[in-house]
Amino acid sequence: MAENCRRVLLIEDNSADAMVYREMLRDAVTTNFTVDVAPTLAEAMDHLQNQGRSPHVVLADLQLPDSTGFSTLTAILRCRPDLPVVVLTQVDHGEVPVKAVRLGAQDWLTKGLVATSTLERTLNYAIERNRMDRDLKLSEQKFRQLAENINDVFWLSDANTGQLLYVSPAYRKIWHRPIEDLTRV
């Protein structure tokens, strides 16, 4: 189970709520979670900047004594854009959860309406989506490096429309023409 241990930073100023979430994560079935609690944004920032014990995921209430609303989420993401954040919200509909996701949260949960299995699944999915996004960016970076440095002409096109999506820079070197000539009708 040690390889399945996930660290959670719970940012929650209500000690009773923090205790409930900590207990829920202790009762998780498939994952061993360790939970650190920060009751203020300042304490959360201190924890996030300590790279020695970095969390795998942040579970954050947006209403804190020293920060409120989306400024809390923005500060967390600015400090650690590499970490997935799941937002705890008081409302289960409307603009708050949607805006939180648009700003960069991986997901959101409604306080008081979360079962242990839902909390566990949501945190694990957020961690895995974050890992897959990171892997995809790395793969795209490697492809771009290869594509930009290869000496052969190749291209990518949309299978349905035939529209050119990419032409290697070697086209310009070999044919002495701008790539844009290929896209002109």
Q: Could you walk me through the main structural features you see in this protein, from its secondary elements to its overall organization?
A:
- This protein is α/β, with parallel strands linked by helices and 185 residues long.
- 45% of the residues lie in helices and 19% in strands.
- The protein contains seven helices and seven strands; from the N terminus they run E-H-E-H-E-H-E-H-E-H-E-E-H-H.
- The strands form two sheets. Strands 2-1-3-4-5 form a five-stranded parallel β-sheet, with helices on both faces. A two-stranded antiparallel ribbon has the order 6-7.
- Strand 1, helix 1 (15-26) and strand 2 (32-38) form a beta-alpha-beta unit.
- Helix 2 (41-49) runs parallel beside helix 3.
- The radius of gyration is 22 Å and the shape is elongated.
- The termini are far apart.
- 22% of the residues are buried.
- The model has no long low-confidence stretch (mean pLDDT 89).
Average pLDDT over all residues? 89
Dominant shape? elongated
Distance between the termini: 60 Å
Structure classification? alpha/beta
Strand-residue fraction?
15-25%
Major sheet attributes: 5 strands, parallel
Question: How many extended strands?
Answer: 7
| Radius of gyration, CA atoms, in whole angstroms | 22 Å
Instruction: Catalogue the unreliable spans.
Output: none
Helicity level: 40-55%
- N-to-C order of helices and strands: EHEHEHEHEHEEHH
Number of helices: 7
Strand order of the largest sheet: 2-1-3-4-5
